[in-house]
Design goal:
It contains eight helices and seven strands. It has 273 residues and is of the alpha+beta class. It folds into two domains: 59 residues; 158 residues, no CATH class. The strands form three sheets. A three-stranded antiparallel sheet has the order 4-5-6. It has a two-stranded parallel sheet with strand order 1-3. A two-stranded antiparallel ribbon has the order 2-7. A hairpin with a 2-residue loop joins β5 and β6. α4 crosses α5, α4 packs antiparallel against α8 and α5 crosses α6. The longest helix is centred in the middle third of the chain and has 22 residues. The relative contact order is 0.16.
């Protein structure tokens, strides 16, 4: 089995090769099954046959040398607000994997609970989804949990530069930046909301504004129940996928009617099968 750090490194390297998360997760599974824990080990001879030809080409393509980035050097982020297009679609179903739906819903919840700007909330949603993916991978035996140093929360002398957001049974750490709050990713980096929005746009396409609008309406309808019921809402709306390892990174159908039929919670919540 791969260690948690090896999987995190693989994910980062696959994304740098141009893979979307929905493609990277099953690719990691195929590589780990073949006992390949680094892209440096990969050759045309040991390439897992379950990986599509187009992805194989990306993995074997040599990266252009541009000089190694300085350790700890922060990437400059855009400070402009994310431009959300008007709603132009009203789909009944959307074929997608669960990660972008979780990311977007947590962003909506964080936006409302903590009065965050949407750009700030997007980074919280991304960090939350990444933690869930890591925990799920461990529970499925795709990689093993390693002993890691406990991440420290804000120190007493940190002032207002650091913060922790507690929502949906997780604590997400964040740093204050000139552009606002930015949640901290697995590599201790400050997450770029524009990159997250770009990724969500690729996955949801023209349906992204529709889903976001319905989720915001749901969060408003939840009122004071939002904090306690947010995770149950996600379980209710998330795409259906196979159980176990077959569902790792798999696509399922999001029934968009569910985005609007959960709240108010004065009635018993819908049963989850």
């Amino acid at each position: 089995m791969a260690s948690q750090q090896q999987v995190a490194d693989l994910l980062k390297n696959l994304i740098s090769k141009g893979l979307e998360t929905q493609d990277a997760l099953p690719t990691i599974k195929a590589l780990v099954t073949a006992k390949i824990f680094s892209l440096d080990q990969l050759t045309p001879d040991n390439m897992p046959s379950s990986i599509s030809k187009s992805i194989q080409a990306k993995l074997l393509k040599k990266s252009r040398k541009k000089g190694a980035p300085s350790p700890g050097k922060k990437k400059k982020q855009k400070t402009t607000p994310i431009c959300i297009p008007p709603v132009s679609t009203a789909p009944q179903t959307i074929l997608i994997n669960r990660s972008p739906i979780l990311t977007l819903w947590v962003a909506v919840v964080a936006e409302r609970l903590f009065s965050l700007k949407f750009e700030e909330a997007m980074t919280v949603g991304s960090a939350y989804a990444a933690e869930c993916a890591r925990a799920k991978g461990t529970s499925l035996g795709i990689y093993t949990e390693t002993t890691q140093e406990k991440k420290d929360g804000p120190s007493e002398d940190a002032g207002d530069a650091k913060r922790q957001f507690l929502l949906m049974n997780q604590t997400i750490r964040a740093n204050q930046t000139p552009a606002g709050w930015r949640a901290i990713g697995n590599k201790e980096e400050e997450i770029d909301p524009h990159q997250i929005w770009k990724s969500l746009t690729k996955k949801l396409g023209d349906d992204l504004p529709f889903v976001l609008e319905r989720m915001r309406e749901a969060a408003e309808a939840a009122g004071e129940d939002l904090d306690a019921s947010a995770y149950n809402y996600y379980v209710h709306v998330r795409p259906g996928i196979p159980h176990g390892t077959k569902g790792w990174g798999a696509h399922g159908h999001l029934q968009t009617s569910k985005l609007s039929d959960f709240y108010p919670v004065s009635k018993p919540p819908p049963s989850v099968k």
